[in-house]
Amino acid sequence: MRPTGLGGQVSKPKDYRTDLNPVWCPGCGDFGVLRGLTQTLSDLEIQPEKLALISGIGCSSRLPGYTRSYSFNTLHGRALPIATGLKLARPDMTTVVVGGDGDGFSIGIGHIPHAVRRDVNLTYAVLDNGLYGLTKGQASPTSTQEFKAQRGLAGQDERPINPVMLLLSSGCGFVARTHAGNLPHLRQMFREAISHRGFAFLHVMAGCVTYQKPSYAQQLYAQCDLLPESYDPTNFAQAVETARAERFALGVIYRRPPGERPAISGPDHSDAVGIWPSLDTPAEITFPGGAT
Prior knowledge:
about 15% strand
């Protein structure tokens, strides 16, 4: 973990940027995510000394280096355990985890259901371009069968996993989806995810300009629909139906109502003191038997 130019009040999105120039390919969707995140930090007036950005390995995992915060570029797929430990030790820190689909849904997938059921107050944003960009276009768990067939990649018979369905089935209390090319929507979803009390998942759809067709991101966006205003995100059955639809719904797909237990399984820690503290809860560890 390292400080990246902390100190002093910041108020504008540009104030949250470090002096490092991103090394992403021109046109990469990660630029939009970086911009949307800094806008959100400005909206929520989160000061850099109260912000921790944790990532794994991959193109998108470079994002913490470009943001003024305490940051940790961890091992491949291990961002969630690191972020969980940090949040337990420093519940006053706003903690955001960023990474790609290969990092999160391949080597790191085993950590997801456990982070969800512990319901630690984290925001986990996965920037999903459906491949491993840093290792030159290998198939990831969300690669489409068409993409693998076109490039002659192995696993053409394997259907891609559904990230939103995965998180819903794990009992996640906040699940949303957005697109890197829709900056206002991206900003809104980041704002709602970070403001959620408990584990929040944000699925960010994006394109890779190097290993996918230049029009891929636009084609992907054409398959998306903004959720209507009448949509009720507290309806879990409706959220599952939305997650399983062929077209991609953008918006808050599921938000667990306050006081309700997870729809799938696991305890509700929303009122617990100690190892599941909220930002406004004093850090106090309570052990079985009443000792503190």
